[in-house]
Write a structure and sequence with these properties.
The chain is about 15% helix and about 15% strand. The protein contains nine helices and 19 strands. The strands form nine sheets. The chain has a three-stranded antiparallel beta sheet with strand order 11-13-12. Strands 1-2 form a two-stranded antiparallel ribbon. Strand 1 and strand 2 form a beta hairpin.
């Protein structure tokens, strides 16, 4: 202990007074009294109460950068009864009051340290359980030890379970050569030529594709098909409140971002939430191919989920291609020169001698017959002719760069379907 003033008690010891549990009057010594073990009715004192008392007394005669640690702070809303106890900040509620209203006094109050230590210890023994400060004070829910997170080193704590390893199925999550394979961390999208976006590894492909780097600050991620042909996408798992990107098998771990040929396919993993197969010919899209499982936009919650994953194309790129097998790629931020705010179907052959994507970014679509960059539509008939569902409309009346959109998105002021969801089509 750091002695910060001369002794004012010159006796080697000082007797306990009635009801006292302990005192600190002799510097460097804690005097333990009968009240430390049982109360006036002969009932035993709980161990955590005794622990708090020891911590409280230990901090007397010490100091920190804010001054002398003590238990009396007159005028700060603690005991105002007067007399010997005037201004004493004892108890949980007083400690909480100082922390919230007078933090500079809280860090020099004995009971703030005592209650912190008590709650920290209890959070190791009983995480997630109510902690009752006693008397008329309200219980609080304790987190796990270590700032609210259970770590593997905490596995001896009775109530603290180590977080599950999100990469338990990966032989070596730190080996970059395994990234992008089933059960391992996802791999970064890294294209050498722009046409690489047509290949696996050229586009983000799952719900976890932007967990590692963030949507606005790094490349998306993808996963490779498994050796038996199983489709694999960059999904996500949660551990102790934190989400991790991990390569997941379609139909087993997830269906979000996976290929589908019917809406029933997208129901294979109920935990994904309501999904539907976007791009099906049966829903009006041209072509005979399948689609991709994405959140069902039939509800406000589904539309919000879609808007939170802007890297997916909500248009069926194959269906609106100029012809069968035409190289159309879904581009989000794979190219540093193209700033698409959402997934955009890009004609990789391009037109007018421009780089792929330039036309879609500025005007709309490449007319390959005329080798010209044109607006996507002027009327609804233009949308149907390009392979969009017949119920789509052209928002030429409300947008300077008209696009083919679902009917509700033709009105930018729509309170139900507008906002971030409709922006995915523009």
């Amino acid at each position: 202990w750091e002695v910060i003033f001369a002794p004012w008690v010159i006796l080697d010891d000082l007797p306990c007074w009635a009801g006292a549990g302990a005192h600190h009057f002799v510097e460097g010594r804690i005097k333990i009294c009968d009240g430390f073990y049982e109360d006036g009715d002969g009932e035993p004192i709980e161990p955590e109460v005794r622990g708090r008392a020891l911590l409280h007394e230990m901090f007397h005669h010490t100091t920190n950068d804010f001054g002398l640690i003590r238990d009396r702070h007159p005028g700060k809303g603690c005991d105002d009864s007067g007399g010997f106890q005037a201004g004493t900040c004892y108890g949980f509620e007083n400690a909480l009051h100082l922390a919230e209203e007078h933090p500079n006094d809280a860090v020099t109050n004995n009971d703030n340290y005592a209650w912190f230590a008590n709650m920290y210890g209890q959070s190791y023994l009983s995480p997630g359980q109510p902690f009752d400060p006693g008397a008329d004070e309200s219980p609080v829910i304790l987190p796990c030890n270590r700032n609210g997170v259970c770590f593997p080193t905490d596995d001896t704590a009775p109530g603290c379970v180590p977080p599950p390893d999100p990469y338990a199925a990966c032989a070596d999550p730190s080996d970059p050569s395994l990234h992008g394979t089933l059960g391992c961390p996802c791999a970064d999208v890294d294209i050498v030529k722009f046409e690489d976006v047509l290949k696996e590894g050229g586009y983000p492909d799952g719900a976890g594709s932007y967990l590692a780097h963030g949507v606005a600050s790094g490349p998306g991620q993808y996963c490779e098909a498994f050796h038996d042909g199983t489709d694999v996408v960059c999904g996500k798992v949660e551990s102790q409140g934190t989400e991790f990107p991990v390569c997941q098998a379609c139909g087993l771990n997830t269906m979000l971002g996976c290929a589908c040929t019917s809406n029933t396919d997208c129901d294979a993993v109920p935990a994904d939430g309501p999904l539907r197969c976007w791009g099906l010919p049966g829903e009006g899209w041209a072509g005979s191919g399948g689609g991709i499982c994405l959140p069902d936009d039939g509800t406000p919650a589904g539309r919000d989920r879609l808007a939170e994953m802007p890297w997916f194309c909500v248009d069926d790129c194959e269906a609106i291609a100029p012809g069968p097998g035409w190289p159309m790629g879904c581009v989000f931020d794979q190219s540093p020169s193209l700033g698409f705010a959402h997934g955009e179907c890009v004609d990789m052959i391009s037109c007018e001698g421009e780089l792929a994507g330039v036309c879609e970014e500025s005007t709309g679509r490449c007319d390959q017959d005329a080798d010209a960059c044109e607006v996507e539509c002027l009327e609804a008939a233009d949308c149907a002719a390009q392979g969009f569902p017949p119920y789509y409309v052209c928002n030429a009346a409300t947008h300077s760069t008209p696009r083919c959109v679902p009917p509700a998105c033709a009105n930018p002021k729509s309170a139900v379907f507008g906002g971030p969801y409709c922006a995915l089509f523009e």
